[in-house]
From TrEMBL:
Main location: membrane
Protein name, per record: Chloride channel protein
Coiled-coil segments: none
Membrane topology: Multi-pass membrane protein
Pfam family, one: Voltage_CLC
Keywords on record: Chloride, Chloride channel, Ion channel, Ion transport, Membrane, Transmembrane, Transmembrane helix, Transport
Transmembrane segment boundaries: 34-60, 80-101, 176-200, 212-231, 252-272, 292-312, 324-345, 357-375, 382-409, 415-436
Gene3D superfamilies, per database record: Clc chloride channel (1.10.3080.10)
Amino acid sequence: MATPVKTAKQIYFVTQRWVRPHLASFHALQQPRLWLLAILLGLIGGALGIAFRLAIGFVQWIWLGTTSEQVLTTLSALPWWWPMIGPLAGGIVVGIILYFWRPLGRAGGVADVIEARVRESSTLTFRGATVATLVTAITLGSGGSGGREGPIVYYAAAASKLGFRIFRLPAAARRIALACGVAAAISSSFNAPIAGVLFAHEVILGHFAMSAFVPLVIASVVAAIISRLWFGEAPAFVIDPDAISISSYLEIPAFALLGLVCAAVAILFQTALIGGDWLSKRSDIPVWVRPAIGGLLVGLIALAFPHVLGVGYEATDMALAGSLDLWLMLALIVAKTVATTITLSSRAGGGVFSPCLYLGAMTGGAFGIIATSVFPDVASSVGLYALIGMGAVAAAVLGAPISTAVMIFELTGGFAFSIALLLAVGIATGLCQAVMGRSYFHWQLYTRGIMLEEGPHKHAAQFIRVRDFLRPLPEGEDTNFDIASGAPWLRPSETLESALKAFDASEVSRLPVIESKTNAIIGHAHHVDALASFNKALVAHSREEHS
């Protein structure tokens, strides 16, 4: 029988050999600080979600006299021309704000947060996020067509950036902290804590590392508690559970076909957004004038289809309830696509998630009316098809099938339709990816020269610079260099990709690095150092994804 002393020594030995290295790694990643910051970011995210929704409601109250999301009901009691007043007035105010306080000329969103995760030299600032959120609150509150998730995610990420600078976190922990802010914002805005965690993993971080899971959960749960204490625990869309159950497995082909239709709508919507942004960038109209023009155009659309105004949750609810006719829903697919494209391309604020839910509900609802009329004895309710359409279109546009599917469950409080939803989401996402090549967020990044879908090697080759691995010129060595000699050389600002191409072309082991202003040699770039920097970046990326 082992003595207590011997047992204590064995425990100490096991602790020193097995547990201590893991604890050292835990502290090296600054996990205790990160968990503490996650609590703080959860509190901030919950408060921001509440404040943002109240701000939208306040602007809407100025225009409509109500803070509820029943915009259509309120407008029905007002003069016929009233739907045009809100978007136009809001566009004018947004234009004034952009003129004085927003040099970039656009409100931030999810793509900007991903860019901040990729490179810390991004334009994500707390001041800029404050202005962007104000712009979006005015846009949505005055009837502009957009979603409320993009700006609140941007604002929460800016708060995260400020937080991890104060806590002095290492690079990997900073990226997780950025995602914590996003998880908290999504959780608070949609009352969907699980989807908040998955969205931050899937879209912002691009991986599901265990080191990120706990902080994201902490931030998301804290934000959800804050939000539920204020708004209550009811889901965003209240649906009769009996209306969203699958009637028969014979409907599976219909759900697959719905996925195909939703892919087509998602492709058209994404193409419209990209086209609108392309035209906006090439327009000579001053940035501060565009929101007013956009607001006027959206207001004109709203004269015929007031359903397109704002976030559009009342119209989405009507589609889920099956209270809209076929032709109206088909018309609203087009009208909402055009209205959202105009709003975002005019540089007013707004996200794309809520419009995706809207378009999906209309697509699924229209499909459901046709399905129930052709197969009345087999087809499920129109509301079920609308619900599945919501998830399919949103997942295809955002490129986030996992978090979107879970969010649909949390937004509605139902799980009975999971098989149908997953099938439609999978088909829609796959087809949209096949046609477009990337999600809408990644398209936005692609226009900025960031191609995440090509893998970490492409990212490393683009963002590592020659200055990061050059060897300074020893004292006393000649700094003169004749550029006209035809000998190969590099600039310190050139990318690793261009440096590796230069090494391959010249077949030398080192190249001189020339200062831009004086054309003098400031050091040498060695081929072996370039390859070492490349390998180091890839190893660090792999370690972060699997830690």
